[in-house]
Amino acid sequence: MTLAPFGTRLRRAMDTRGPLCVGIDPHAALLADWGLPDDARGLERFALTVVEALADRVAVLKPQSAFFERFGSRGVAVLERAVAEARQAGALVLMDAKRGDIGSTMAAYAATYLDPGSPLFCDAVTVSPYLGYGSLRPAVQAARASGTGLFVLALTSNPEGAQVQRAVTAGGPTVAGAVLQALRAENAGERPLGSFGAVVGATLGGTVAGAGVDLDTGGPLLAPGIGAQGATPADLPAVFGDALRNVLPTVSRDVLRHGPDLAALRSAAQQVAVEIHAVTAA
Prior knowledge:
The chain is of the alpha/beta class. It has a single domain, classed as Alpha-Beta Barrel (TIM Barrel), CATH 3.20.20. The protein has helices spanning 6-17, 28-33, 40-54, 65-69, 72-88, 103-114, 137-146, 162-165, 175-187, 236-240, 253-256, 262-280, and strands at residues 21-24, 60-63, 92-99, 124-127, 149-155, 196-200, 221-223, 247-251. An 8-stranded parallel β-barrel has the order 1-2-3-4-5-6-7-8, surrounded by 7 helices. The longest helix has 19 residues, at 262-280. The termini are far apart.
């Protein structure tokens, strides 16, 4: 079956289920809070509980690959199952892997997450452009071929990111600005939403406006930082301005801490979704 472009599928999911991405981040501390062992069995219970609770109602689920990889092959097997079951239940799956390399290695990363024949096939993956945006070309090509998408790190929510992202390139714009320009070119002419998104932190407040960047790339904007990192849905308009409609806020701990009770997880996600809708629909 040929997939519609990721941007088309994401726009539909955001419009019908609401613009919310929930992370699946099985920190050791969260496993403990859920009364689960810090091993592959606890990981499996955690991940599949989140999928059961949320995959039929939120637009996107975002597993953080590192928390599965730390358990080796058993952890990756859990990740494969979680991805498959989440997609089967109707959620789009964004793999938070932040891969970045060159040549055949980047192509191999792309095949891992964006090839329909892969056991880890997802709807999109996060990637890092800091070996040069051109190093992402194999992933861009794979995404176009399979109807999947990318979210490229641009203005991230961690304070250390500014050292690189706000540096000025030889051509004039900041590094983040150059990444956003490249994404705008990737998404040119795509409707209703391009498939190549940027990661822009919700914690950045009005500093984005002062950074001389245009966030309207024609693609989605993944917005981490709501909840444990200090941002709230009310902060989104100041960060994203006219691009607000294309923002996909992502929340992890503020929802996950309500587990393992299914009803509590669903209620927490619904509350965040209501708060986001109140801001984005205004």
